[in-house]
# Entry
Amino acid sequence: MRFHLLLPAALAASIERPLTLGAQLQSTAVSGSSQVGVISFENVGFDGFYHQVESFSNIDKDSCLCSLLDERTHYNGTNAPLNEELSVHFRGPLKLHSFGYYVSSDYAQGQNGGEWTRKAHYDAASQTADNVTFLVNGGDESKCLGKALTYADADGVHTASLPQVLQKDNLIESDAEYIIYSNVLCGASGSGKDCGVYRPGIPAFHGFYGAVKMFLFEFEMPTGNGTLKQFYKYDMPAIWLLNAQIARTSEYLANALCLCWNSGCGEFDVFEVMNATETNHLYLTIHDYQGTGDINEGIMAYAHFPRARNGTMKGGVVFDLKSNAIVFLLDKVSVDGTVQGSLVNLWILDAGKQAQESLLSVTMGTALALALSTKSHLKKSGSDAVRATGLVALVSWLFSALLWV
Ligand SMILES: *[C@@H]1O[C@H](CO)[C@@H](O)[C@H](O)[C@H]1NC(C)=O
Ligand SMILES: *[C@@H]1O[C@H](CO)[C@@H](O)[C@H](O)[C@H]1NC(C)=O
Ligand SMILES: *[C@@H]1O[C@H](CO)[C@@H](O)[C@H](O)[C@H]1NC(C)=O
Ligand SMILES: *[C@@H]1O[C@H](CO)[C@@H](O)[C@H](O)[C@H]1NC(C)=O
Ligand SMILES: *[C@@H]1O[C@H](CO)[C@@H](O)[C@H](O)[C@H]1NC(C)=O
# Structure
């Protein structure tokens, strides 16, 4: 999804000038990838750490610099680091009909019981916007941070000086992007504060918390107008989740010292067109270090969803209590105020063919132990593609892990 070069934080910290390189994501051949209605990752979450942004200086000047905290931010447990607060990102061509964010104390896929409570909601038709703030990267340009976050205008493209509700007819074109945060304002910027360090002057909001959480969407991804040459990402719509700290510092410049992404604070691509030659397929990718050293490539599910170009798609992503992350597309999905766990189970069953991948059981600090027992860490149920990726990536992962320690 994003284009950053992999740079272990310890190494990055020794480089004194801002990096301006943008490593392009390599497209992996995925011929033979099957079309499904449900894609799930099991064993999501591991014991690891990343580095938060510590400070910025001269953000309006050529001498703009960022630094990361030497101190590690540790995470562990169910769905980590995606158990942290996330922001929700959209790229056109896309039209959003509705969005819901839910939490549950006890939902586990396939088990009876559990209930989801909606904590944020957008509905285009009724112009409902509860606990959502629409932002765009449209503000002041900085040499090391890119454009600042600002409120989005009702069209989801332009900027506004106050929060706006995304309008009913909110179709955005290729390349256009907006972000949804909650409406809970961050406290002051600073290490150890509720939102960590964020860029001065931005509207800074909390992301959506929860180890066990669910996002539902009703959306369209129609064919883009224009041509390949007119856009950076022509006709490549996407919906994805980022650790909420990322866009509050710098989402789009490949400066590893200005955001926590490169050191692995987490991204989950839910429905993403990966390249201009495969625009009818939506892929799912996790970008963290759970068994890969290549944060750019990440861990992509081998299967894909079909992109419906005409009409509305409905679906969601669930992070459950048992470390499963399940993404599904199904017309029956409805963004209601309360959703029973049993209904989500039915949706997942009804969505059709399922593809399942298993993430590796790794610990960021035990690189050497891992090297000695590589085989046992590769789960049998993962697809060949993921297992092969795991093996190749393990080597570079070990390198980065060793550089860190
Ligand atoms: C991207 O494009 C290449 C061809 O250029 C293709 O082989 C590959 O399967 C495509 N899809 C993805 C998901 O990378
Ligand atoms: C796991 O993370 C939590 C914070 O999220 C921390 O309080 C706890 O000490 C960590 N546990 C381990 C074993 O690292
Ligand atoms: C809005 O979302 C935030 C972030 O997840 C959450 O902390 C807050 O409780 C939500 N507000 C309401 C009224 O549910
Ligand atoms: C393309 O342009 C037509 C005509 O202006 C418009 O109706 C349609 O909504 C546009 N589609 C997209 C994806 O922007
Ligand atoms: C979708 O709409 C386009 C034109 O609007 C049409 O050419 C195409 O056949 C439609 N596809 C489907 C699957 O209905």
